[in-house]
Amino acid sequence: MERSIKHHKMDSQMQHVTINNGYWYYFNDQELRITAHGSGYSGKETVYLNDEVVSDKRNLGMRSSHKFRHQDNNYEVRFEVTSLLKGGVECSLYRNGQHIATETKAFLDKNNKAGYKQIILCFIAGLVFGGLCAFLTHYFFG
Question: Which residues span the membrane (predicted)?
Answer without folding.
Answer: 119-141
